[in-house]
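re the bet — no i am not wrong, look at it urself. input seq straight from the record:
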Amino acid sequence: MTSPRRKKSPSFYWGTGHTEPTGEEALRARLAEAERLLELSRRENEAKEEKISGLLQVVDTMRRDASLLMSERDEARRRLDALTLGRGSSAASLEEVKSAGEFWQERYYSLSEQYAAVVRENSDLKRRLNIRDGKESLFGIGGSPASNRDFKGNADEGNRAKRGGARHGHAGHGRRRPPSGSAPRLESCSTLPPHDVCCDASDLVKVGERRREYDRFIPARTEHVVVMQDVFQCRGCGKRLYAHPGDVLPRMSLSNSFLATAAVEVFVRGRTARGTAAMLGIGTGTLFGLTRFLADRLRPAHEVIRQDAIRQKFLNADETGWWNDGNRAYAWVFTNPNVALYLFACTRGSVVPAGLFGYREGKYCLPETADRTLVEENGKYAETMLLGTDRYGGYSPVDVKRQLCFEHLKRDLDKLLARSTGIQEVADFYRVFRLLLIRSMRLCADTERSDDEYFREAASLQEKIRAAVWAEARDCELRTYQNIWRDNWDSLFHWVRDRNVRCENNAAERALRPTVIARKLSFGSQSDKGAENREIIMTVLRTVMLRGKNPFDWLLETLNRLAADPKFNVADALPPTDPRHERKLKTGNST
């Protein structure tokens, strides 16, 4: 007869795998361990409270000294004013009063700095006392400025031994063929190289031809064109009409292909303005004038894309630093397979996303001067917008549901392991939990799985993550990391129910990457108008790319249509959106 199996502890699924002892001995051992930890905690708290009490006394003393010094400073100022108004005192007395005032002012500033240092130390000690409740934020979690982070170390030998490219023996895909619709140029070759000779070159006879194909690069060049326009005159009213070339806008000295090339090079391929101007043979000021002209023409398309963004079921959002005329600003992006909306603002506050989706009821209010058109449009839809973000608090009061990024949580887990070297409990949790995060992100990226298989695997991963997050843990930093998951549980698993939602925010990170590179190369924008021009052109061209069009071809075709018809609405040239990613209107609302 086999003995009954003992119940496994919650830590079995992510810990060392041992089974808990049963009976009275196990209960006594746990009780003794709890009493020991309680006693250690009590002693530590008493020591910290005693130190805080002493610091508070020092703070009170410094406050009294500061108040006394402020009174003496005010008295010295009154005496100085009286001496200045009276003009009867000697210069020596005036200098004496000024010296006394400067002395007490320096003393006041010195004590103020000491007081601020004591307040900071007091706050730090209070935070340390709260470590055991598991709610205190850990250093490094939640992000920090890049200037405060350590430099990344060198790669280990294993990573350095890896080589890129396809696996050995892969057949490859061959060379790319010329684009459809472009006929190759046919040439003939009948000249032999000097070194290709036989016994007697005079006896060579042509016996046939051999076909060879290769690609030849023709460098771009600017061509100055003089067009003779036909002039027509009406016999009735005498009005004259002029034939207009179809590849240049009215009153422009540069063709539409010139404008399209400049915009794509700067705002799609990331070339600097000076480099693009040098390539095109124009001045930098002329290039900036072209971007301003083009942004004004694309503004209607930008407004339509903003409205398209409101209709989406799911958007990835992110923000990064930017510079505007030397002042700190921020670049925002909201993207999915339908749109890529860029916003440049002087703030990182919640007012930027709230300008699109509004605040939740009971939270903040938009400024009186804000445009509420998009917020009102957002309220017409039955579903609430789902926004994929990191854990930045600026999105919290916005009227959206959130899907937090697993990749950011994985980085926090790596930092936890780095801070907890030698702690076996953290190492066991890291080994299992990191694999669960990686499997979740790979599942979201796998488009080959059937829907049934996807949802079954997603539900299984959610339950395994739940078991690890709600398992007991002793290490305070590990408990803090678990609390991140417990406190945000409702914002972590939308991807389990909707396959179009991703559990990572890589789409927004990739969409912001060109902006980060532009910040490094060109140091941001030089004016509010320049930031607005970049916002419009980047939004339109990158949205066109997401919808399957070549940005240069689309922009050139659109400008040519605008040249033929000045009343043409550029927004009508936008490619259609995919309706699978759009929300439905509430009953009773119409588009």
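see?? The chain is about 50% helix and 5% strand. told u. also Residues 225-313+321-373+529-591 form one domain. so pay up
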